[in-house]
Amino acid sequence: MLSVFKSIPTHMDYKGQKLAEQIFQGIILISAVIGFVYGLIIQQFGWTVYIVLAGFAVSCLLTLPPWPMYRRNPLPWQPVAPEASGEPTQKPQESIKRKKHK
């Protein structure tokens, strides 16, 4: 049962994050303008709030899950370099002798 959940991709690349942010902001802006105009016409502020909340729900549905359109540009990671010898390698900072202050 848990293997089904592990097979669901949970990542989004950088261009996908930018696209999701633009879609989110666009839907919120459009729904706010439509809600404001509609609420102004019928003189009911409640309808403005309902329309903005509906826009928020739609934008969350479209941008929060990692849909395939947000994963089109994966980062090319470097392959893991195999160690040449069995000895652990030292970090460059460890090999430098530190000066003692007097």
UniProtKB/TrEMBL annotation:
Protein family (similarity comment): Belongs to the SPCS1 family.
Q: What is its main location?
A: endoplasmic reticulum
This one is known as: Signal peptidase complex subunit 1
Topology in the lipid bilayer is annotated as:
Multi-pass membrane protein
Residue ranges annotated as transmembrane are 23-41, 47-64
Going by the UniProt record, its keywords in alphabetical order are: Endoplasmic reticulum, Membrane, Transmembrane, Transmembrane helix
Native source organism of the sequence: Poecilia reticulata (Guppy)
Compartment annotation: Endoplasmic reticulum membrane
Describe the protein's quaternary organization and the partners it interacts with: Component of the signal peptidase complex paralog A (SPC-A) composed of a catalytic subunit SEC11A and three accessory subunits SPCS1, SPCS2 and SPCS3. Component of the signal peptidase complex paralog C (SPC-C) composed of a catalytic subunit SEC11C and three accessory subunits SPCS1, SPCS2 and SPCS3. Within the complex, interacts with SPCS2 and SPCS3. The complex induces a local thinning of the ER membrane which is used to measure the length of the signal peptide (SP) h-region of protein substrates. This ensures the selectivity of the complex towards h-regions shorter than 18-20 amino acids.
Q: Which domain of life is it from?
A: Eukaryota
Entry function: Component of the signal peptidase complex (SPC) which catalyzes the cleavage of N-terminal signal sequences from nascent proteins as they are translocated into the lumen of the endoplasmic reticulum. Dispensable for SPC enzymatic activity.
Per its UniProt record, what Pfam families does this chain match? SPC12
Task: Give the span(s) annotated as Disordered.
Answer: 79-102
**GO terms for biological process, alphabetical:** protein targeting to ER; signal peptide processing
Gene Ontology cellular-component terms listed: signal peptidase complex
